[in-house]
Amino acid sequence: MPVSLRRAATGDVAAIGTVWESGWRDGHLGHVPDELVALRTADTFRDRAGERVADTTVAEVDGQVAGFVMVAGDEVEQVYVAAGHRGSGLAGTLLAEAERLVAQAGHSVAWLAVVPGNARARRFYERNGWTDDGGFRYEAAHADGTVEVPCRRYVKQVI
């Protein structure tokens, strides 16, 4: 399938929110604090997608948003692919674009956070040359503050 990468636009927010919510639930339920699960509603994913349009690259397949990646500075914050496109290589394409964006911004090392129980994501990152740099507590933001989430920090040299 031909894939096209482009910067996200306001018109993509609903699609990004849908992909994000579905993928987040698949990878995080049972692996993050219940408090965070309760805070992550469909509305919050859509709202957060709207706030992050400028940091987002979408992958389109047949004119539809099939996945996205968000990059802020040297952090690859989000990498999600719609369920129907998982296993197609699309995640690797998005991750490579994120690495390119981090390098383009002048950072030599990219990093990302992954919950320890998300074995599928951890294997994916390791297959793509990322290494586990140790555990830390990620502060997941929400409207009233943050929730601490035990995570693993993965890193990769990009320059």
TrEMBL record:
Q: Which terms does the record give in the GO molecular function aspect? A: acyltransferase activity, transferring groups other than amino-acyl groups
Pinpoint the N-acetyltransferase domain residues: 3-156
What are the protein's UniProt keywords?
Acyltransferase, Transferase
Which Pfam family, an example, fits this chain? Answer: Acetyltransf_1
Q: Which InterPro entries match?
A: Acyl_CoA_acyltransferase, Bact_Acetyltransf, GNAT_dom
Q: Which domain of life is it from?
A: Bacteria
Keyword Transferase found: yes
Q: Which CDD domains match?
A: NAT_SF
Membrane-spanning residues: none
Instruction: Give the matching PANTHER family.
Output: AMINOALKYLPHOSPHONATE N-ACETYLTRANSFERASE-RELATED-RELATED
User: What is this protein's record name?
Assistant: N-acetyltransferase domain-containing protein
Q: Which organism is it from?
A: Paractinoplanes tereljensis
